[in-house]
Amino acid sequence: PAQVSAPPGVRMSEMTTVAQKPHALQDRQAPAVRALDCKDVPDYRTERRRAAICFYGLNRALRHTIGSIRELVFDQLRALCVEYRVYFHTYSERSITSPHAGEFNAQVAGADEMIELLRPYRHEVTSQADADRLLNMRVYTRRGFAYVNVTQRNLLRQLYSLQRVTRLWQPEHADYRSVAYLRPDLLFVTPLDVPAMLGAREGEIYTPYWHMHLGANDRFAFGLPAAAAIWGNRLVDAAEYARRHKLVSEAFCAWVLSDKHHLTMRFTSMIGMRVRSSGEVHALDQCLATMCRWADNQCHYGCHKHVTRRERKRLHKAQMAA
Predict the structure, then answer these.
(1) What is residue 279's three-state secondary structure?
(2) In this structure, what DSSP letter does residue 52 have?
(3) Rg (the chain; Cα; Å)
(4) Each residue of 101-155: pLDDT tens digit?
């Protein structure tokens, strides 16, 4: 089997050994879902076959992505007789600024659209101003800014949103076999791996194999409730990490999962492309639907270039120096 190279902060002994070729998307996809007759499933309608599906962050593009969410997430769960409840936390703002995404005062739909399209079991809406008052930027930038000011603040807002949606499902953790976190602005092109969700073991967390950026892709994840809660509560560990490193999202995610909490990190075949408020797919994600079939190294970083081994070493050295 091919070994998947471990990002910084992830010990090789704790990475998945995959039998598939990591550069071949067709070998990494979840098995084709064959719908079950639910009346023949012994544990149907029990906690052994129930999942919490959690969405977090601003609703910048749900109207453009809901079709893929219904087909490649919700329909996959129903086909395998998995009951699910939807939770979400979002912000009340109707315009956003994100230099990282090239958006300035872009108009977004807000919570009402999420309620209509996702039909949540529970949800919560917070203003960004309220979140900002609780997030002291100085605590999280002791080693300097990893991004421009507004982007660094948006990362903290994302972590706060994750923490809030985690608190919505945690009182009912015993009701769920598995918990998944998804961003509402992701246009999925491969399905949620429901068999992996149902088969996950204690201490395992599944994250994407693409766009790892010298850490762990932090756009979605799934695992058993205890492991998923660690992924969702990363804000708790952010101040400790920031005392020694700049708060870079992917490196921080890998540190929390592997170094801090010693989870076994496994890759999932699911792929989702970020969609902006305009409906356009992010430039660095446009290759994900096609190029990851053959250029695994490139998919670790983005679609703008193929990253050589020499450049990976240079990037790693620069990140460690930061």
Answers:
(1) coil
(2) E
(3) 19
(4) 677 778 888 999 999 999 999 999 999 999 999 999 999 999 998 888 888 999 9
